[in-house]
Amino acid sequence: MNLREIWKNKKPGKPFKEWGRIEKLAILLAAGLLLVVISWPSGKEEKPETATSPSGESTTNRSYEEQLEQRLKTILSQVDGAGDVQVMITLKDGGEKVLQENTSRTDKQVEETDSNGGVRSQNEHTYNSDTLLSGGSGGSGSPYVVQERVPEVEGVLVLAEGAEKATVKTEITEAVQALFPLEVHKIRVLKRGS
Fold first, then answer.
1. Closest C-alpha among 6, 1, 8 to residue 23
2. Tens-of-pLDDT digits for all 194 residues of the chain?
């Protein structure tokens, strides 16, 4: 008896408990296929995120550094007594791109019994990881970037006309520390020459 005949002979209103093994298997198979279709990616491609500066603009490492320097110069030049200010920022690294990966893990346990009744058990663990590529199939396309972290600030140098005053120097140092997670020895405030 095939599935079509079973379906034709099925009595309406028959409770699930009384369904046959083949009927239940067919329902499970249909549900599995439905889950696969639902989870299949649509043709719509999402655009990867790019690094952004604190002002929200898309940047490269150098322009990010320049934007930080300009913003810091603008704010520090308004410190009372600072005068004309120049700023140099160095970055620790080039930032980090977090790529989307497809991972799978398989665990398998095999037990074998020999003719004397002895049992041997063996466990196998398999782990696979592949980088997800956007815009193409067959290994073409670029890696899908989930997140791009901006570079960390390594050090800050500030040249200020009013840096000979200890209060101005302290205020500038504390302002830089408030903006960047830097230790004091990584911030230098020097008097700017004419």
1. 6
2. 566 666 566 655 555 566 677 777 777 888 888 777 777 765 555 444 444 544 444 446 678 889 999 999 999 999 999 999 999 999 887 777 777 777 778 888 888 888 887 888 888 888 777 776 776 555 567 776 777 777 888 999 999 999 999 999 999 999 999 998 899 999 999 998 87
34: its two tokens: 């439905």
Determine the residue type at 11. Answer: K
- d(C-alpha 153, C-alpha 31), whole Å: 52
With residue 51 as reference, give the H or E element that holds it: none
Burial of 107 by CB count in 10 Å (0-12 exposed, 13-18 middle, 19+ buried)? exposed
Q: For the chain, give the number of residues.
A: 194
Both tokens assigned to 31 = 């549900």
